[in-house]
């Protein structure tokens, strides 16, 4: 039996990947991999255990031992670390910063490869991340690279955090996003870049529905049979 089809959705922070991936997974009835959540969980676990960003061996051990569970809750996905909900901590500034540093360690990325591939189950998988199309699922049936201008991305994150009742400063958020993007783009392992066979969609001027429609057309033109 051939492996379940994968749609890879990569791109920088705030490009709308997460929202689009969730909508698509619901619409198609496919599984969803939020790979960023794994790096964020690794960051939370490292912070809790006092493992520093410079300790690559320690970080890789933490990543390899992650006891993570994703459960469908009333307000979306509930994320559990060692059985305790950490959903509210995943998007905190401290976690985002540590996640981006954790993600630049080759041994951490290696420790998370098989865990990510295990999400590939019938009828299919929507994989959201930075290296889904380039490293984790190079044979994905469809690869999307979603971008948006730096301003639009910062504004989207700002609104998301505001809606959650967090106090945020737009210019600081914008600086943080730019810094993390730069780290993702220039790191030695799995840098953020579109796969050669990815379809690049710039969502700066597009609504969620417009992006979903554009992807729907690409699905119809692909080898995916629904
Ligand atoms: O997508 P999200 O913002 O949740 O990802 C958190 C961090 O994890 C990113 O800043 C990025 O450095 C890293 N990441 C990664 N590879 C992925 C997904 C996320 O390096 N596939």
Give me the secondary-structure topology.
Elements: E1 6-10, H1 17-28, E2 31-34, H2 35-49, H3 56-64, E3 68-73, E4 76-81, E5 84-85, H4 93-102, H5 106-117, E6 125-129, H6 132-136, E7 142-147, H7 150-163, H8 170-186, E8 199-202, H9 208-221
Parallel strand pairs: 1-6, 1-7, 2-6, 7-8
Antiparallel strand pairs: 3-4, 4-5
Helix pairs in contact: 2-3, 2-4, 3-5, 4-8, 7-8
Cytidine-5'-monophosphate (C5P) binds next to helix 2, helix 4 and helix 8.
Could you characterize the architecture of this molecule?
The structure is a single chain. Helix 2 crosses helix 3 (56-64), helix 4 packs parallel to helix 8 and helix 7 packs across helix 8. Strand 3 (68-73) and strand 4 form a beta hairpin. This protein has nine helices and eight strands. The chain is globular and about 50 Å long. With 226 residues, the protein is of the alpha/beta class. It has a five-stranded parallel β-sheet. A three-stranded antiparallel β-sheet has the order 3-4-5, covered by helices on one side. 48% of the residues lie in helices and 17% in strands. The relative contact order is 0.21. The chain binds cytidine-5'-monophosphate. Residues 13, 35-36, 39-40, 99-100, 103, 129-131, 180, 184 line the site of cytidine-5'-monophosphate (C5P).
């Amino acid at each position: 039996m051939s492996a379940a089809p994968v749609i890879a959705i990569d791109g920088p922070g705030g490009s709308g990947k997460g929202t689009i991936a969730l909508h698509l997974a619901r619409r198609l009835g496919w599984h969803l991999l939020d790979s960023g959540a794994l790096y964020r969980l690794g960051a939370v676990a490292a912070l809790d255990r006092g493992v520093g960003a410079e300790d690559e061996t320690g970080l890789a051990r933490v990543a390899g031992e992650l006891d993570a569970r994703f459960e469908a809750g009333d307000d979306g996905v509930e994320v559990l670390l060692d059985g305790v909900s950490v959903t509210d901590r995943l998007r905190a500034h401290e976690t985002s910063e540590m996640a981006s540093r954790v993600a630049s360690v080759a041994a951490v990325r290696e420790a998370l490869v098989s865990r990510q591939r295990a999400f590939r189950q019938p009828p299919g998988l929507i994989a959201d991340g930075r290296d889904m199309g380039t490293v984790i699922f190079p044979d994905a049936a469809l690869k999307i690279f979603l971008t948006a201008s730096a301003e639009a991305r910062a504004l989207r994150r700002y609104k998301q955090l505001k809606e959650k009742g967090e106090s945020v400063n737009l210019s600081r958020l914008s600086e943080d996003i730019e810094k993390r993007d730069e780290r993702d783009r220039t790191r030695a392992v799995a840098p953020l870049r579109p796969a050669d066979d990815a379809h690049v969609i710039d969502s700066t001027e597009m609504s969620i529905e417009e992006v979903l429609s554009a992807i729907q057309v690409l699905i119809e033109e692909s080898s995916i049979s629904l």
